Amino acid sequence: MQEVTTADILTADPDVQIIDVREVAELSTGMIEDAVHIPSGEIVARAAELDKSRRIIAVCHGGGRSGRVAEALTALGFNADTLVGGMSGWEAEGLPMVPPEA
Predict the structure, then answer these.
(1) Which residues on adjacent β-strands are paired with residue 19?
(2) How far apart are CA 12 and CA 19, in angstroms?
Protein backbone atom coordinates (compact mmCIF):
# COMPACT_ATOMS: atom_id res chain seq x y z
CA MET A 1 0.00 0.00 0.00
CA GLN A 2 1.17 3.47 -0.89
CA GLU A 3 -0.06 6.90 0.07
CA VAL A 4 -0.89 8.82 -3.10
CA THR A 5 -1.40 12.54 -3.58
CA THR A 6 -4.10 14.42 -5.41
CA ALA A 7 -1.64 14.95 -8.27
CA ASP A 8 -1.14 11.17 -8.46
CA ILE A 9 -4.90 10.69 -8.90
CA LEU A 10 -5.14 13.38 -11.55
CA THR A 11 -2.40 11.69 -13.57
CA ALA A 12 -3.36 8.09 -12.75
CA ASP A 13 -4.03 5.44 -15.33
CA PRO A 14 -7.66 5.95 -16.42
CA ASP A 15 -8.28 2.30 -15.54
CA VAL A 16 -7.71 2.95 -11.81
CA GLN A 17 -10.64 2.23 -9.48
CA ILE A 18 -11.34 5.09 -7.08
CA ILE A 19 -13.35 3.84 -4.12
CA ASP A 20 -14.97 6.43 -1.83
CA VAL A 21 -15.27 4.72 1.56
CA ARG A 22 -17.04 7.53 3.43
CA GLU A 23 -20.49 7.12 4.95
CA VAL A 24 -23.53 8.30 2.96
CA ALA A 25 -23.96 11.44 5.10
CA GLU A 26 -20.41 12.53 4.22
CA LEU A 27 -21.00 12.47 0.46
CA SER A 28 -23.00 15.71 0.35
CA THR A 29 -19.80 17.71 -0.21
CA GLY A 30 -19.22 15.77 -3.44
CA MET A 31 -17.13 12.93 -4.81
CA ILE A 32 -14.27 12.48 -7.23
CA GLU A 33 -15.68 11.90 -10.70
CA ASP A 34 -16.06 8.19 -11.55
CA ALA A 35 -15.49 7.14 -7.92
CA VAL A 36 -17.53 4.22 -6.64
CA HIS A 37 -19.09 4.52 -3.19
CA ILE A 38 -18.57 1.54 -0.88
CA PRO A 39 -18.65 2.51 2.83
CA SER A 40 -15.58 1.33 4.75
CA GLY A 41 -17.64 -1.04 6.91
CA GLU A 42 -18.87 -2.86 3.79
CA ILE A 43 -15.61 -3.11 1.86
CA VAL A 44 -14.65 -6.69 2.79
CA ALA A 45 -18.17 -8.01 2.19
CA ARG A 46 -18.35 -6.20 -1.16
CA ALA A 47 -14.78 -6.89 -2.33
CA ALA A 48 -16.11 -9.16 -5.08
CA GLU A 49 -17.48 -6.02 -6.77
CA LEU A 50 -13.91 -4.83 -7.35
CA ASP A 51 -11.57 -5.88 -10.14
CA LYS A 52 -8.32 -7.43 -8.83
CA SER A 53 -6.60 -6.70 -12.14
CA ARG A 54 -7.06 -2.93 -11.66
CA ARG A 55 -5.32 -0.65 -9.16
CA ILE A 56 -7.54 0.76 -6.40
CA ILE A 57 -7.21 4.13 -4.68
CA ALA A 58 -9.32 4.35 -1.52
CA VAL A 59 -10.59 7.77 -0.45
CA CYS A 60 -12.23 8.93 2.78
CA HIS A 61 -12.60 12.29 4.54
CA GLY A 62 -9.07 12.67 5.93
CA GLY A 63 -7.11 9.56 4.98
CA GLY A 64 -7.39 7.34 8.07
CA ARG A 65 -10.23 5.03 7.09
CA SER A 66 -9.05 4.77 3.51
CA GLY A 67 -5.63 3.68 4.76
CA ARG A 68 -7.23 0.87 6.75
CA VAL A 69 -9.39 -0.09 3.75
CA ALA A 70 -6.34 -0.15 1.46
CA GLU A 71 -4.52 -2.39 3.95
CA ALA A 72 -7.51 -4.76 4.13
CA LEU A 73 -7.82 -4.89 0.34
CA THR A 74 -4.07 -5.47 -0.03
CA ALA A 75 -4.39 -8.41 2.37
CA LEU A 76 -7.11 -9.78 0.07
CA GLY A 77 -4.77 -9.61 -2.93
CA PHE A 78 -5.72 -6.24 -4.41
CA ASN A 79 -3.27 -3.51 -5.47
CA ALA A 80 -4.75 -0.84 -3.18
CA ASP A 81 -3.47 2.59 -2.15
CA THR A 82 -4.88 5.50 -0.14
CA LEU A 83 -5.28 9.22 -0.86
CA VAL A 84 -3.25 11.34 1.58
CA GLY A 85 -5.46 14.03 3.11
CA GLY A 86 -8.62 12.45 1.72
CA MET A 87 -11.47 14.47 0.34
CA SER A 88 -10.78 17.34 2.75
CA GLY A 89 -7.41 17.81 1.02
CA TRP A 90 -9.00 17.37 -2.42
CA GLU A 91 -11.58 20.05 -1.63
CA ALA A 92 -8.97 22.39 -0.08
CA GLU A 93 -7.05 22.27 -3.36
CA GLY A 94 -10.19 23.29 -5.23
CA LEU A 95 -10.22 20.12 -7.30
CA PRO A 96 -13.39 19.13 -9.17
CA MET A 97 -16.11 17.16 -7.44
CA VAL A 98 -19.40 15.77 -8.64
CA PRO A 99 -22.61 15.16 -6.68
CA PRO A 100 -23.05 11.59 -5.45
CA GLU A 101 -25.33 9.42 -7.53
CA ALA A 102 -28.78 9.15 -6.04
Answers:
(1) 36, 58
(2) 14
Give the predicted TM-score (pTM) of the model.
0.91
Beta strands in the chain (DSSP E): 3-4, 17-20, 36-37, 56-59, 80-83
Q: Which residues of the chain have pLDDT under 50?
A: none
Does domain 3-92 correspond to CATH entry 3.40.50.720? Answer: no
**63 and 84 in contact (C-beta within 8 Å)?**
yes
Distance of CA 32 to the CA centre of its chain: 9
Rounded distance, CA 80 to CA 91, Å? 22
**Catalytic pick among 27, 60, 69, 83:** 60
Q: Is 19 a catalytic residue?
A: no
Asked if 18 contacts 9 with a C-beta cutoff of 8 angstroms, the reply is yes
